[in-house]
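Quality-control log, excerpt.
Job 1 of 2 completed; input and output follow.
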Amino acid sequence: MSKTFGSLTHPEITAQPAALAKALEQLEAQRGWVDKYIGNSAFDEVIFIGSGSSYYQALTMAATFRKWLGRSASAQPSSEIFLFRDQTVARGRNVLLVGVSRSGESTEVILALESVKDVPGWTTCGITCHEDSKMAQIAECLLSPLGKELSTVMTKSLSSMTFLMQAAIAKASGDAKLQAELQEVVRMDEAVVAQADAAAQQLVNGNAEFANYIYLGMGAYYGLSLEASLKIKEMSYVWTEAYGTLEFRHGPKSIIQPGSLVCVIVSETARKYELKVAEEMQAYGAHVLLLTAEKGADTAFADTVVELGGKELSDEARSVLYLPLLQYVGYYTALKRNVDPDAPRNLTQVVKL
């Protein structure tokens, strides 16, 4: 194995605490953006759009928006807006379209934003890590200053952008408790990242290679499960899938076999039901990994339990605390398979049509 394998990816995952702290600082400098866009109740619908990882974080952003603000929001792949807009969004609504792109250069998000610039009732904005990008030129963007990455796969960029948008939503809500929760996430993150690094190494190197990888999550965590599945697929070329936790029982569970890894991103809202699914998968022979705010008697059955803390936080605010372990699992699996996670085959940082 080359000594340079993963030399970009690991430091970028590890740098998340600083990226989150800087994102929160940046938000204070862009409070006007919050009032103009996310906090503006004149919009009937807010649509977060992205491609790949950016779409998956858009799902978490939209779920957070609906829960914390009680207003209508959805997430869509960018291509659905510029190719199938009338099938995706009802006509005659006052819509805020929020582009989500690490680079701000993805062809699909640019095409989507440009496609509605002259459509009555549509307003555009965005979130990115690059202030001089094409997207930032055509739409006013919220900026994650330390989200920029050299590695192909998204790690700290995704965490910091997701967190930054959640912080903007919390600010728009005017709820001091939600804003305090995100301050607590920043405080916790350094210890969480260190713990996740160690736990991922132990999981990957302490077990035989898993037959397949299944990630399960609900609510704001559904997008995280999709992102986790993509991350390990991008970095290490293993076959993996993601589902809503209870939906997995309706047919897809047939792929479980001895040696499967089933990772459940456990919420507090649906904890009882999610753990029942995990127990069922273990009975079929899967190695069950639980990511949870708190261990308990109800999690003792699992093969691996990673306790992240933050039980007092809302499920939504806790989202980014789950990401480091999910990213490190992909990273260490790649190294174990003698694959360079910095430069996955067939992939580039920016996808252009």
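Job 2 of 2 completed; input and output follow.
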Amino acid sequence: MVHGALQVMHRDFFGDGDDDGLSLPSQSLEDVFKEMSRSWSVDIRWLGGNTTQDEEHEAQDDFERDAVKALISGKTEYSKVEGDKFQFVGAITLHNQCLKCHVPLRKSLEERVAGLAITMPMKSAATKGAGKKE
């Protein structure tokens, strides 16, 4: 869902090639991430992988460091259940056309990989919506 939304946002924000000073699509999605955390206790954040040196997107713990290594080695996802939470990181491939903004000083045209880290509680997330009528 998030990867697809990111692709649509890139099309909508950058489709005609104009630079209107709008925020980046990944930044727009951070509002969605905040709402997911507030409403469902689901924490979502970007991992830079081999695409950025931005401290905000660096791995914060052993799970995330292992996930980044797995994604860079070619895996498309990495997950773990720890205690009462499920942790998942999915790969986001940055193709050559993405790299002009995300890695402007690169020395090659090879694709890079970033990740989307999702952490959710095993119990409360499953039961929070229970009993609601749709």
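Post-run check on job 2. The first strand starts at residue 43 and ends at 47.
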